Amino acid sequence: MPSNAFFDNYLPIAILTVIGFVFVAVSLFMSRIVRPSNMTKEKLTTYECAEVPVGDTRIHFNIQYYMIVIVFLIFDVGILFLYPWAVQLKNLGAPGFFQMVIFIEILIIGLAYAWRKEALEWTQ
């Protein structure tokens, strides 16, 4: 009987994916059935370290905090790309070096843009 390479390679992955989805669905269903669900006023209030909530819980944060986090994440992910590149630098040769130089230049342009738009300023 001829063997199909596609099914030989990807059938285990498909089976494990289906098993994973079934496991999650069964777990969520069983937890919904077993858990107690008696909602009281105290359970529906906001939890603030055992303190009585004061005022509105919808606090408006300054957009500056989000901008700082986005810039941090961009550069954090950029640094994560530098580690495997540094390990394989000898194998990559000159083309790999220049590709990383271009990547770092793009990050620097992004930093300059964020700096120019005052995304890194703490004061208003």
From TrEMBL:
Pfam families assigned: Oxidored_q4 (PF00507)
InterPro entries, A to Z: NAD(P)H_OxRDtase_bac/plastid (IPR023043), NADH_UbQ/plastoQ_OxRdtase_su3 (IPR000440), NDAH_ubi_oxred_su3_sf (IPR038430)
Transmembrane segments: 12-34, 65-85, 97-115
Entry EC no(s): 1.6.5.3
Keyword Oxidoreductase: yes
Main location as per UniProt: membrane
CC annotations in GO: NADH dehydrogenase complex
GO molecular function, one term: NADH dehydrogenase (ubiquinone) activity
Topology relative to the membrane: Multi-pass membrane protein
Highest taxon listed in the record's lineage: Archaea
Subcellular localization: Membrane
Record keyword Transmembrane present: yes
Keyword line: Membrane, Oxidoreductase, Transmembrane, Transmembrane helix, Transport, Ubiquinone
Family: Belongs to the complex I subunit 3 family.
PANTHER family (alphabetical): NADH-UBIQUINONE OXIDOREDUCTASE CHAIN 3
HAMAP family per UniProt: NDH1_NuoA
Protein name: NADH:ubiquinone oxidoreductase subunit 3 (Chain A)
Taxon lineage: Archaea, Methanobacteriati, Methanobacteriota, Stenosarchaea group, Methanomicrobia
